[in-house]
Amino acid sequence: MQAAGYNFFDDMTAVDWFPRSPRFQLSYHILSHAMKERIRLCVLLDEASRPSSPSRGVAGANYFEREVFDLFGIRFEEHPNLRRIMMPDEFEGHPLRKDYPVEGYR
Questions:
Q1: Residue 93 is part of which domain span?
Q2: What distance in Å separates the CA atoms of residue 96 and residue 35, rounded to the nearest whole number?
Q3: Domain tally for the chain?
Q4: What's 28's domain CATH number?
Q5: Tens of pLDDT along 61-93?
Q6: Bridge partners (DSSP) listed for residue 84
Q7: Measured distance CA(27)–CA(10) in Å, rounded
Q8: What's the whole-model pTM score?
Q9: CB 6 within 8 A of CB 32
């Protein structure tokens, strides 16, 4: 990332394209202060995919990955502390998945 001049990890989010396959899209937003430019990298994933965690080498990625895990259920390989960040620990499911019931699980 640094070699190309992009020096700041700005954001990461996901999209659920259910029922399409692959189901998920991860979007990484990266900024270059020197060039005053942004890029967005998109990665398509199926439900079984476990993308590598950039959090060990990229400052700020840790909490974005935890948010994506909490809300979409995407697990990251080698994440140092992958646990819920927004929903309570006892919460069942991942509320931003399109197949999550609107009324919640009963």
A1: 1-106
A2: 34
A3: 1
A4: 3.30.460.80
A5: 999 999 999 999 999 999 989 999 999 999 999
A6: none
A7: 11
A8: 0.89
A9: yes
